[in-house]
Amino acid sequence: MSPRNVEKDLQKREIRIVHILSSAIEVMAVKGIGSVSMNDIASAAGVSIGNMYHYFKSKDEIFAELLRRGQTDYGEFVAIIAQKPDRAREKLYMICSTWLQMTNHWAYTILIHTARMSETSSEELRRQVTERFTNNLSPVAAIMEQGQREGEVKTGDPMELAFYFVSLIQGLTLQRAPGVEVPVGIEPADIVRLFLTAA
Amino acid sequence: MSPRNVEKDLQKREIRIVHILSSAIEVMAVKGIGSVSMNDIASAAGVSIGNMYHYFKSKDEIFAELLRRGQTDYGEFVAIIAQKPDRAREKLYMICSTWLQMTNHWAYTILIHTARMSETSSEELRRQVTERFTNNLSPVAAIMEQGQREGEVKTGDPMELAFYFVSLIQGLTLQRAPGVEVPVGIEPADIVRLFLTAA
Amino acid sequence: MSPRNVEKDLQKREIRIVHILSSAIEVMAVKGIGSVSMNDIASAAGVSIGNMYHYFKSKDEIFAELLRRGQTDYGEFVAIIAQKPDRAREKLYMICSTWLQMTNHWAYTILIHTARMSETSSEELRRQVTERFTNNLSPVAAIMEQGQREGEVKTGDPMELAFYFVSLIQGLTLQRAPGVEVPVGIEPADIVRLFLTAA
Amino acid sequence: MSPRNVEKDLQKREIRIVHILSSAIEVMAVKGIGSVSMNDIASAAGVSIGNMYHYFKSKDEIFAELLRRGQTDYGEFVAIIAQKPDRAREKLYMICSTWLQMTNHWAYTILIHTARMSETSSEELRRQVTERFTNNLSPVAAIMEQGQREGEVKTGDPMELAFYFVSLIQGLTLQRAPGVEVPVGIEPADIVRLFLTAA
DNA sequence: CATGAATGAGTTTTCATTCAT
DNA sequence: AATGAATGAAAACTCATTCAT
């Protein structure tokens, strides 16, 4: 085996993993998180069920990995936004509209909470999810603080404001689950406005 | 015909049903919604597993009934608040603090979303849940409108504001699920403040 | 209690029993014999399930009684026919057409065979059913013998002919079960003709 | 893609299916059709209960497949007999004696009728069973017609005669179920004779 | 790495029968 | 006699995981 091939194999493996994970989210969005079976995911990914276990040790590992990547990606996205030279209100708008546009985001959101609540998921997993959630609040809190310095964001503990901001978006995300939808519009600008001083 | 007191039987039955349902919520709060078995609920309620089926046709019916009662109770609570002679900001505060204090409320919230997402739950159930959710927005919207007339609540479509308010509270509720908790305080007054004009 | 009342009670009881039994056959014809539950029968009879056990010791007893009465009634019917002053060919015709006209007769027929085959039914029950079946062959065999004396019925062991005659009718009865039916006419005269010498 | 021999796998699967089906008939013949459980069949076939569901979606599917194969095999058998160069009376004799010699044939017969009667079995299944039954009458009807041309079979609609012939054999088959048996001999020659003109 | 057959524990559901009222 | 709640054993079915090929 040349090192070239080893590298290629690893790439292939990574592609496969990403493919399986996105298929998992996809099928979770259709079947409902609680009732997705290994078989469902394997079929959706076009992979044999036995082969799934070459990529993941268990079903729980799939969920854990899904969460890790989802939360990490989101964290990076928010961090990048936070470091931009724009004004705070614009940054909040970007986060808000981007998030709400993402299809399947509600699936991630439900998955996060399912993972945290299920006795099945290990204490360790729950701790990690909560830790990442909390960490991901920091960039948003930084934006809130920036906004307060700019005189546009309401006063109050920036971390608390960030918490409310993210919770609000998550709450709305859940309302966008497929099936029947709540017949009330969602306007990112209006959401951001709640956190601003000027009416 | 019957040597038994029919009315008393019906009362007993209702009491039993309520008891089973609250046991169900209780155990769901501990075990996690996805993994509650009929056996868990039966044990928690101190009822034999076979007997459960005298009160509910299926596990799904338990969930459906739980949702119906939970949403109806909440709707009545909000309607009563809305009709009080208090100011809007005070009403919002009452809703917010009451809701966040309720133990197990996160369980209802997750259950609502689980029900709406699972392919298992019928289209009919999903429709009903969404309809009740939407109906329950109205009293909150009325409060928003009142607040706008009083000059304290921010401008904007009252229904939209109500939607945000409820979504925010639901989003926060989810963060209060047992296990590891997010280390950020939740202050009802601060939440309400987001919807007010005066900083 | 006057003896008058006791007698009346017994009459009432008998009426009730007959009513339950006919409801049982009725519902077996709809639900299928294998899947009739005590509850089904009780509901069909408009009797509470607990009350069923005042009239029958068990579900098996219902089946046993159903068989006993069905076979006894049939036996009496055939015996009466056999003793009539008519010619054998006419007697055969009467048996054949009467039987095939009876609604639900297929249910009895299947029930007989189900009872004889199921390991559930006791050895004793199976013996009784077979014994009654065999006994009920005798009057038909007598008719066959009469017919042979009259020169109209084919030669051969009368008991064997009777066995074929009854088996043929039972086989046809099974084809008349509800649902889709075999699109071939059944003519009693043609059936009888099979057992006659003259074409 | 696959390091396994796909064709061989399919062959193995077919063998397994046939094995399970014959085990099912076997155990039905012992336990009685109504009370055969998945577990019984699995044990009889030496297969784990979970594995049964790799081959059949449900218990009903097993019954449906059993019927399909049984009726198809019988149809082929009869068709082959019909095309032989022999005389009609000899063909009828072959069908009759072969059928009555087949062990477990009564089990198929009862199964057919059980399937047609049970509300459990779908309308579709009942239609199929009846259709196959009707189709299988045709070769027998052809034999009857041949016999009429040969001057040995009684006059009358050949299809109707075939219907009677098959019903008679089925009726007799049911009498051969295990347990107590009717103490009357069954002679294929005598049965065929019923359909012949010459005494 | 790839496949899908095999396992067995676990889940929901049914049902004959008993029992307190 | 009448009712229907209660029980528990058993049935059908599911599914994560392992393993031979």
Automatic annotation (TrEMBL), chains A, B, C, D:
Alphabetical list of PANTHER family matching this protein: HTH-TYPE TRANSCRIPTIONAL REPRESSOR NEMR, TRANSCRIPTIONAL REGULATORY PROTEIN
Ranges where the HTH tetR-type domain occurs: 14-74
Gene Ontology molecular functions: DNA binding; peptidase activity
Organism (species): Paenibacillus phyllosphaerae
Biological processes annotated in GO: proteolysis
Protein name from the UniProt record: TetR/AcrR family hemagglutinin/protease transcriptional regulator
Keywords attached to this entry: DNA-binding, Hydrolase, Protease, Transcription, Transcription regulation
Taxonomic superkingdom: Bacteria
